[in-house]
Amino acid sequence: ASASIGVTGLGVMGRNLARNFARHGYTVAVHNRSAGRTRALVQEFGHEGEFVAAETAAEFVAALERPRRLMLMVQAGEATDAVIEEFAPLLEPGDMIIDGGNAHFADTRRREAALREQGIHFVGVGVSGGEEGALHGPSVMPGGSVESYAVLGPMFEAISAKVDGEPCATHIGADGAGHFVKMVHNGIEYADMQLIAEAYDLLRQVGGYGPAEIADIFREWNQGRLGSYLIEITAEVLGHTDAVTGGPFVDVVVDRAGQKGTGRWTVQTALDLAAPVTAISQATFARAASGQTALRAAYRGLPGGTTPVLSRTEAARFASQVENALYASKVIAYDQGWSMIQDAAKEYGWDIDLAAVARIWRGGCIIRASFLDRIRAAYAQDPALVSLLTEKDFAQEITDAQVPWREIVAMAARRGIPVPAFSAALSYYDTLRAERLPAALLQGQRDFFGAHTYGRVDKPGMFHTHWADADRPETDA
Ligand code: NDP
Fold it and tell me: What sequence ranges are listed for the domain 6-phosphogluconate dehydrogenase C-terminal (predicted)?
C-alpha cells in the first residue's frame, strides 16, 4: 500500500482531479469501472506524478495507505450508491470515502449516517470549477467529520485554487454541509448569470448597443466593483463572432437555457427551509420559461410596452444606471444565498464559517469575484451578521444605487422588457425593509376561511375572530 489517495471514476472530473493530486506530490491510485480509462490515464499522464493503476476493486483498495482515502468521481444518484456498495465492504473503521460528485446534500446526509455505523467517514465534497478547475485548482467544499478534515484538509488545500496565497478549501461543516454549500453556490451562479443577461438585454433593447459594444461595456465594468469571472466571460461571449454567419455569436444561439438541476435543488430546498431566495428562484424559473416553447408561442405578439431606443448620450447615462441596478441586485442575490446557508445551518446543526465560504469562492469556482473579499471581511468582522446590508459599506452602496435601480426596473416594466431577477431582488429589498407588510391582511384572510388564528400587535397570544357571528367577540385561540 503506497497511495495517499485513490480516485475511482476517471471521467472528465475524476481524471483531472487525480492528475491534480499527483502533480502535488501525492501518490494516487486510479480505478475506473471500465479499465480502459485507467490505462489511458496512466499512459497519457503517468509522467506527471506517481500513479498506481488498479484494475479491480480489491487491487484498488489494497493500493491505499491507512486510513484509506478513496474518492468517488462518478455520477450523482444511483451510480454513487452502487460504487459505495461495492467499496464499503472492503474498507475498515477509520477509512474515508470521499464523494466529489454533485450529490444532493440529503443523499450525503443519508450516506454519512449509514457509513458512520460501520466506522467509515463519509465525506461529501462540493467541487466547483469544472474540468479546468479540477486540474488547475478548484474551489473545494468538504463536509463530513472534523477528524476526516484533519487528514484530508491539507490534501484538499494543496490541490485547490489559491487567492493571495490562501487556499480555496475549508471544512464547511458536518455530513452534507459541503454539498449544501456547493448547491447554494450554484443557485447564486444562476442568479448572477440571469442578472447579467438582463443587463445585456436592457443595454441592447433600450440602450441600442450592439453585442460588441456591450462586450466593451462589460469589460469596463469588469475593472470595477462588478469584476468577476462571469462578467469577464460574458464580454468574451458577446464579443464572439459566429464563423458561419459572420454576425454576433449570441444571435445564432437558440434562446432556450438548459440546466443540470443544481439550481432547481436550491429552489426546492429553499421552499423546505422557507428561505426566500427570490432572485435565485426567478433566475431558475427564467431558464424554465425560456424552454416553454408552446407557451411562448401562445403569448408571442401580445401587447407590451414600447421600446424606443435611446440617443447615444442618453444611452451612456442609462448604461451607468444599469450598472447600479446590476450591482444592487447582485448584492441581494448573494445576501439571499448566505441567508439560506444560515437557515440550513440552524436546521441541520451545522457550524458554518460564513467568512470562509466567501474566502473559498474567491478562486476556482464559477462565481469567483473580487467582491467576495468584501463579503468575507463583513462576516469576519461579525460572524453572526444577519444580512450584508447591515454592514455599513454595503448599506451605503445600496443607498447610492436606489434611484437608478428603481428607474431601471420601472423602465423595463414600461417598455415590456422582462427583468425577473432585477425585479425580484428589488422586491425582496422592499419587502424586508418595510415597516409593515400586508401579511397582516393575509392573516386576516386565513383566520376568516380557516380559523388559522392571528397574533395582535397590542397583546401576546393568538386570537380568532368569529367572522360569521358579529355578536361573539374575538376569542383567545
Ligand atoms: P463523466 O461522465 O465524465 O464520468 C463519469 C464516471 O463515472 C466514469 O468514470 C464512469 O465510468 C463512472 N460511472 C458512471 N456510472 C457508474 C457506475 N454505476 N459504477 C461505476 N462507475 C460509474 O462525469 P464527470 O467527470 O463530468 O462527473 C463526475 C461527477 O462530478 C458527477 O457527479 C458530476 O456531477 C460531478 N461534477 C462535474 C463537474 C463538471 O464540470 N463536469 C463539476 C463538478 C462536479 P465508465 O468510464 O466505466 O463509464
Answer: 178-468
**C-alpha span between 358 and 345 (Å, rounded):** 16
What's the number of domains the chain is made of?
A: 3
Report the sign of the C-alpha dihedral through residues 446, 448, 454, 457, in that order.
positive
Q: Which of 291, 318, 320 is nearest to 205 (CA)?
A: 318
Ligand 1 atom closest to Cα of residue 10: 9
Give which of 366, 405, 361, 401 is closest to 379, Cα–Cα. 361
Select from 7, 10, 13, 262 the residue to mutate for testing ligand 1; criterion: most ligand atoms less than 8 Å from CB: 13
CA-closest residue to ligand 1 atom 17: 79
Give the CATH number, domain containing residue 359: 1.10.1040.10
Out of 189, 198, 391, 397, which one is annotated catalytic? 189
Q: What nine digits make up the cell of 467?
A: 367572522
Is the same domain home to 113 and 230?
Answer: no
Task: Residue 154: give its domain's CATH number.
Answer: 3.40.50.720
Do 25 and 71 lie in one domain? The reply is: yes
Domain with 448 in it = 439-476
> How far is residue 278's CA from residue 276's CA, in Å, rounded to a whole number?
5
Q: Is 189 a catalytic residue?
A: yes
What CATH number has the domain bearing residue 469? 1.20.5.320
Same domain, 443 and 429: no
Structural domain ending residue among the three candidates 175, 197, 222 = 175
182 is catalytic: yes
What is the distance between the alpha carbons of residues 14 and 134, in angstroms, rounded to a whole number? 8
137 plus 239 within the same structural domain:
no
Q: Are 259 and 284 contacting, i.e. CB atoms less than 8 angstroms apart?
A: yes
Per-residue pLDDT of the chain (477 residues; tens, 9 = 90+): 799 999 999 999 999 999 999 999 999 999 999 999 999 999 999 999 999 999 999 999 999 999 999 999 999 999 999 999 999 999 999 999 999 999 999 999 999 999 999 999 999 999 999 999 999 999 999 999 999 999 999 999 999 999 999 999 999 999 999 999 999 999 999 999 999 999 999 999 999 999 999 999 999 999 999 999 999 999 999 999 999 999 999 999 999 998 888 889 999 999 999 999 999 999 999 999 999 999 999 999 999 988 788 999 999 999 999 999 999 999 999 999 999 999 999 999 999 999 999 999 999 999 999 899 999 999 999 999 999 999 999 999 999 999 999 999 999 999 999 999 999 999 999 999 999 999 999 999 999 999 999 999 999 999 999 999 888 878 887
Q: What is the best residue among 38, 75, 179, 365 to mutate for testing ligand 1's pocket, by most ligand atoms within 8 Å of CB?
A: 75
Residues contacting ligand 1 via CB (< 6 Å)? 9-14, 32-34, 37, 73-76, 79, 82-83, 101-102, 127, 130-131
- What's the CA gap between 140 and 151, in Å, rounded? 15
85 and 201 together in one domain = no
